[in-house]
Amino acid sequence: MASFSTVSLMRETPDVVRRFVEYYREAGADESLVYHDGPLPPELAALDVPGLVLVPCDDAFWGALAGGWPDEVEDRQSATAQAGLARCRSSWLLVCDADEFVFGDRRIPEFLDRVPDSVDAVSVPTAEAVWGPGDDLTAPFGSTHFRVKWRSHKLWKGLRRLVYGEVGPHMKHGLAGHIGGKEFLRADRTYSWIRCHGAERDGVGITRPAASIDPDLADMYVGHFDAIGLARWTEKWRRRIERDTLNPYMPEHRVGQMQLIADRLRGGDRAARALFKCFYGLTRAQYTLLALLGYAFRRKLFTDP
Questions:
Q1: What backbone torsions phi and psi does residue 57 show, to the nearest 5 degrees?
Q2: Which residues 6+ apart lie within 8 Å of 125 measured at CB?
Q3: Are 80 and 9 in contact (CB under 8 A)?
């Protein structure tokens, strides 16, 4: 049976790190390599979770690894992915973020066993977590509904305002976050560049979508909790707006989101909450329509809300 570990660059609270590590431990991971984006705070240093390997990315770390601290988030992510690959003891390494959880109709090792040896990197598509009918919008990680990328760009452009109102133009193919999925890398291979959603070797992309390898593998997703909860979503965007988190690779729809969110944050908590609900809350009518089109489904990933 295939084995796997995870590697992530994070700057998260202990409760988020614990949930992430425990989820993947239950899913079969050997260990979770967590590179903390900055000096390690005491509350995180004290965290004791089976399977967690915690690495502080401080000045000494970056000086030894890259000759200095990379300014851009994606460059730091790529560097820590390579560092994780070098110390990975499993046959596969999942490159993902703290808010991403791979799931499907089979266990991850069983999925990886189905990937031919000729494939060095395989990706699973994004399923974005949202609060649908019956979910508590105030509960972090309380979303049990997922939406996926629209297959028809023309249909999406024609219906996006009807389905999502004013926020529709600030989404991409039906998702507020990324549409690129996440990848597993064979740990005994080399890669010249490891991006967030795909790897390269000698300038050539080598990551294969799972469904393109075998249609029977199309039942696996990476559940992206782009909004873990209202408080975290608000703080994340405040940091971005204040340029604490630099990302020159931010896609156009994210830039539009930033402008809209910045406006609503200035309007106070009520305006921010209303916008959050527009982006990440589905009414019964919205969910019914998306489910009929094949773009939404329900799945409870966690036992606690």
A1: -100, 75
A2: 148, 149, 181, 209, 210, 211, 221, 222
A3: yes
For 127, 131, 221, the CA distances from 134, given in Å and listed in that order, are 19, 8, 23
pLDDT one-digit tens code per residue, 88-140: 999 999 999 999 999 999 999 999 999 999 999 999 999 999 999 999 998 99
CATH T-level topology, domain 1-98: Rossmann fold (3.40.50)
Please list, in sequence order, all residues whose beta carbon lies within 8 angstroms of the beta carbon of residue 173, skipping any fewer than 6 positions away: 149, 150, 153, 156, 179
* Neighbour count for residue 175 (Cβ, 10 Å): 20
Amino acid at 225: F
For residues 30 and 52, is the Cβ–Cβ distance under 8 A? no
In angstroms, how far is the first alpha carbon of the chain from the final one? 32
Domains of the chain by residue range: 1-98, 100-305
Residue-wise pLDDT tens digits, 225-240: 999 999 989 988 888 8
CA distances (Å), origin 105, targets 102, 166, 221, 261, 299: 11, 35, 10, 36, 11
3-state secondary structure of 205: strand
CA 110, chain centre distance (Å): 22
Mean pLDDT across the chain: 93
Confidence of residue 247 (pLDDT cuts 50, 70, 90): low
The confidence score (pLDDT) of residue 305 equals: 46
Distances (CA, A) of 295 to 81, 213, 227: 31, 22, 19
Residue that wins the pLDDT comparison between 268 and 121: 121
